Amino acid sequence: MSAQRRNCESMNISVPPSSNLHPFPTQQVAFHRTELSVILSLYGRFVAAGEWRDYGISCLRDVAVFSVFRRTAENPIYRIEKRPRMRDKQGMYAVVGMDGQILRRGHDLKTVLRVLERKLIRAVE
After folding, report:
1. What is the Cα–Cα distance from 18 to 65, expressed in whole angstroms?
2. Which residues neighbour 69 within 8 Å (Cβ) at sequence distance 6 or greater?
């Protein structure tokens, strides 16, 4: 036998056991690209106005959350939530204030975000 063939025979190729406890990956709720473009467009206008400075996105099992911060170390001043289970009831999109109060809920993201756009409009002197 050649030396190369002996090296191949002596190698044991084994597949490591799967460490995944769940046979299927857990599903997460996330924002779609079109939804994110609407949210980030609004976010950019508030950043340009100097109102918002940071954001965070959380994709959980039941809800996707876009949190808006005035400063990084604070609690979010607004949360834009997507809850698909509420689609048939009150609408799956909601804007939640800092105190947990739901400012607006609905089926269309653009109309729900209008509650925040009103805060951007200021009187120019």
Report:
1. 31
2. 52, 53, 54, 55, 56, 75, 76, 77
The per-residue pLDDT for 13 is 58
The Cα 114–Cα 103 span in angstroms is: 10
Examine the pLDDT at 7 and tell me if it is beyond 60.
no
122-to-49, 50, 71, 117, 125 alpha-carbon distances in Å: 10, 13, 21, 10, 9
The 3-state DSSP class for residue 114 equals helix
Structure tokens at 121: 């409009």
> Given phi > 0 = left and psi -120 to 50 = alpha, else beta, which region is 116?
alpha
pLDDT in tens, 91-102: 889 999 888 888
Residue where the block lists tokens 């997507």? 82
